[in-house]
Amino acid sequence: MRRRLPPLGSLRAFEAAARLGGMTRAADELLVTHGAVSRQVRALEAELGVALFGGPKGRLRLTPEGERLQTVLGRAFDLMAEGVADVTARAEGDLTLSCLSSFAMRWLIPRLPRFQATHPQVAVRLVTTDFSDMALPDGADMAIRVGGPDWPPAVDVRPLFAEQAGPVLAPALAAGLKHCRPVDLARLTLLHTAARADAWDRWFAARAVAPARATSRQFDHFYFMQEAALAGQGAAVGYWHLVADDVLAGRLVAPFGFDTSGRRYVALMARPARPAARLFADWLIDEVAIFEQERPLPVG
């Protein structure tokens, strides 16, 4: 059914004048002239066929019809304001982000306060996972994943950075090696994760090295493996963006530098992406640029 309503401008002018008690105050709130509000109210009275204000010009008062209309319009404008605020909050005010646990702990979480400081209107809800599932999880606005190059066709992909891999170990453990050749690492306990069980095989193969079978330890999570490496329990294949702070601080050494693994970190977003997701993706790209400028990749 088609709604028959007077122009919204005249309803808004009357509601403001009735609520604030005068045309001048309504004009100040609406950023128009006194005459504009007065004309809008007269036009509304003419269309409705009733007087909404009575009394002398300097002391206007609402008529009974004006009081009833003010009550209805007050509720209606409040409801409209609530609806607009709800839509705005959904568009800007919250972001559900699915992120790999290790990346969240070692890279993202330390930087999130900077995002919140510059974008306080966006509340980030972080959901971590240990699986690099390429699909965007239900309920997530964005997912940070590593893999490629084939990404799901139904999502927008924002490249972040190429993954760089290389052996890392505690300085004391490295100092105990008589030589520092790739094959010498096989004399140490080789640490790896369940998700990257072939990391050492790939690294040795890239150097055409076939070491004798080495002792190894497997961890469920990268950050557990990294803690073991920091404690001197063995050598691990680390990833630059996750180990950079420890390497630069001297807690770990990377004697052979880092090589491109062939994988890439990306931000996956639904189509069309929500404004909050686009805003966060732009911030991520800026943060990656800052990281790479402040922490240039070491070479072996």
Descriptive overview:
With 300 residues, this protein is α/β, with parallel strands linked by helices. It has 3 domains: 84 residues, Arc Repressor Mutant, subunit A; 97 residues, Periplasmic binding protein-like II (D-Maltodextrin-Binding Protein, domain 2), CATH 3.40.190.10; 99 residues, Periplasmic binding protein-like II (D-Maltodextrin-Binding Protein, domain 2, 3-Layer(aba) Sandwich). The chain is built from 10 helices and 10 strands. The strands form 2 sheets. Strands 4-3-5-10-6-9-7-8 form an 8-stranded mixed beta sheet, sandwiched between helices. Strands 1-2 form a two-stranded antiparallel sheet. The protein is rod-shaped, with a radius of gyration of 32 Å.
Structure summary:
By secondary structure, this protein is of the alpha/beta class.
